[in-house]
Structures are given as C-alpha cells and as structure tokens.
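hi! just following up on the protien thing from before. the input was this:
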Amino acid sequence: MYRFPISMLLVAVLATSGCSSRGKADGGEKEEKPADAVPVEVATLARGPIEQVLRYSTHLEAERAVEVRSEAARKVVALLAEEGDRVGRGQPLLRLEDEQQKTAVARAQSQLEQARREHERKASLFGQRMLSEQEMTAARHDLDQRELALADAERELSYTVVRAPIAGTVTARLVKIGDTVSPNQRLFDLVDFDSLVALVYVPEKELPRVAVGQQARLVPPAAPDQSFAGTIDRVAPVVDPKSGTVKVTVEVPFARGLRPGMFLEVELVTAVEADALLVPKRALVPDGTQLALWRLAGDDTVERVWVEPLLEDRERVTVANGLAEGDRVVVAGQAGLKPGAKVQLVGASGDAV
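and the predicted 3d structure came back as:
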C-alpha cells in the first residue's frame, strides 16, 4: 500500500490554510481610502487697470510724399539740396542751365514794351478820331499777344530752378551735376515726416468699438519694449465688400526712430477700466459654449464658477459677476477637477495683476 509522505502532507495543509485566510481577507469589506488631493496652482484675484485692444500689423507710411520731376530738358548746373536735408515749400533744390531762357525773357519784355508804346499812341489817335476802331482792336490784340509771350518765357525760365512742392525731408537725390535731364524725369523724393500714418483694416463686426480720437499704440516687433503713441484720425465710411473690413487711419506724430515703410504692430485701445477685478486667462476653462473657472473654497476643495468675459488684454479678463477680490482661482492643474474635489496647492501662488 502506497503511503503519502508526511512532509508533503504538511505542505498541503499549510497551503490550504493560507488560501483560506486570504480568501477571508479578500472576501471581507475593504476599508475606504480618502481620494488623493489634486495638485494645482492658484492665483489670488486683485483689482487694477485694464485696456481692451484690437491688434493689427501694418507698415508705416507718409501721406505727404512726392516725387519731384523735371519740367524741362536742361543740364544740371547746381545742386542745392542733399539727402537728409529738411526743406521748406518752394525752396530751390537744383538749378538747370538758363541762358537761353533769360534771353527769351529779355526779348519778350522788350517786345512787350514796344507793343505798349504803340498801343498808347494808337489809343491817343483813336481818341482824336484819327484812327479806325479796327486798327485800335489790332493794337490791343498785339499787346495781349506780347504779354502772353512774356508769361511763356518767364514760365520756361522758372523751370530752370526746381523747387520743393511741399515742406519735408529729401529722402532721395537721383541726379548729379552735369546730368542732362529730360522732361518728367524723377529728380528727388520728398517726404513730410509730420504726415506719418498707419493704415489698418478692421473687421466689420469690430466697427462699433472703433471711433475717431481713440488712442493707439505702435510697437516695432524688432523692439517690443519701445512703443509710439497714435490717434485714430479717420474711419472710412464704407466696408470693402471683398474683405469685409473698414480702413482705419491712425495718425502718428513724428518721433525719433520712426521711418516710412517700418513694420509695426498697431494696438487700437477700444476700452479702458481703471479699477477692474482682473482674472488670469489661464484660469478660464471652455465648457461647450460657456467659460468656467475653479475657485478654491475654505476647506481646500474647489467649486466651479461660470463666467462671462467683458474686457480682455493679452493675459487677463474682467468678468460680469460671481467673483470677488481675494478669491483664489486655479490657473494650472484644472484637468479632471470636479466640484468638491480636494486640491493641494503647489508651485507659485500669486496675484492676477
């Protein structure tokens, strides 16, 4: 008869006993463990100023900028202005050869004087009824023609001195002494730096927020710490049907560092509130078509607050209601939060301003 080894029997009994005890432990009621606190970062709401702005990119340009062109075919004999010079309206910029024109003026003046004397003589005879009306009319016509000839000669002479049509700065000189210029040839570029403007195109839906006289800031992307002040000068009365935008002209007073053609970010300040409750945009959580945030309660739990933004800048918003100064709101770690969830504060905890 086969006998089961005692050592193996003992092992079997012990194994059975262990399984039985584990089964009792597993089959019993488990002890509830408290849910782990969710680590979050919060910010304390404070009051301060806020501006709402519309942001666009554009190039600076001068409204008064002209190309000065020649009105006669002559040789350049003198340059009277150089690039970078500020000139007044009517100031000479260069001189062309003028000997022929001066001679023509002198000839026309002489002929006009002769025609005047002849007219006076015939007028005297006509008064004495010694000259026919036809002869008197011919004398008057000759005098008129001589006056027109002198005006033509003086105009041709004036073309030999090229003058600035506007006050401004010479930004380009395109000829040199000795050049023979032709009619309508470009000679200089003039820019009035006091007429700098920035043109931006505002979507039609934003038009109610834009008005003449509103402030604007111009920031060069290459120097974001530097900004220039401007003012909305004009709002176009029509909407471009192709783009759905309205042209807005921002007047920019000349300042050192501004140049026509410079690329700028333009910020139109459409609303200002000096003492607003400021909420970090990082606290806002989209939920369908609404926005919510999580506010810290006194027992380190959170509650959801639905908000409606009013004004906003790059980093902050103001809301219609539901919050107060000193409230602490979650700005990081919102994922998975539920009303009443326990949270643990980590990281920086600062003001919203």
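The two ends are 92 Å apart (CA to CA).
The mean pLDDT is 86.
cheers
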